[in-house]
Design brief:
The longest helix has 16 residues. It is globular and about 40 Å long. The protein is an alpha+beta fold. It has a single domain, classed as Metal Binding Protein, Guanine Nucleotide Exchange Factor, Chain A (Beta Complex), CATH 2.170.150.70. It has two helices and eleven strands, in the order E-E-E-H-E-E-E-E-E-E-E-E-H.
Length: 158
């Protein structure tokens, strides 16, 4: 188990497994929500996370949709302001800000995303793939189509 929590300790959680991806998002909304050049986010399945304490301390903000849904949602500790996963009951997958973890998740960043929106004062200095908005959309549509296709005889044109 990897433990994590907010700055003040009011919210604590444990993660049994990280599935990834581990993305460094440079979009303007993630930069503003994190207060940094990018948000370092690790994907987890809801079934692999246990919220130990502080559910009542979590607040959410949903930004207006800019061009088309989905909109941008963020959650944070109402006491200290630490960014938090939303721990939404209906979500089967969500992202955890990597900086909340107390221990090594044994994953390393996979890629930078939305790099065209990056801040002028930060230059990417590693060899990770750098994906634009178009690259991210194509990648996510392809992943959705792989997971949404019916299995078995129904998927074979029957």
């Amino acid at each position: 188990m990897i433990s994590g929590g907010c700055l003040c300790g009011a919210i604590r959680f444990e993660v049994s497994r990280f599935v990834g991806p581990f993305e460094l998002c440079h979009c303007s909304r993630c930069r503003k929500a994190s207060g940094s050049a990018f948000a370092a986010m690790i994907g987890v399945r809801a079934e692999d996370v246990s919220l130990l304490s502080g559910r009542e301390e979590i607040r959410r903000y949903e930004a207006p949709v800019q061009k088309h849904p989905p909109g941008f949602r963020t959650a944070f500790c109402r006491r200290c302001g630490s960014p938090m996963p939303g721990f939404e009951a209906e979500d089967d997958w969500f992202e955890i800000p990597a900086g909340l973890l107390d221990d090594d998740p044994s994953l390393r960043p996979d890629r930078h995303i939305f790099v065209e929106y990056g801040s002028a004062w930060y230059e990417i200095g590693d060899d990770l793939p750098q994906l634009t908005k178009g690259d991210v959309i194509r990648m996510r549509v392809a992943a959705f189509e792989r997971h949404a296709k019916p299995q078995g005889p129904q998927g074979e044109g029957n």
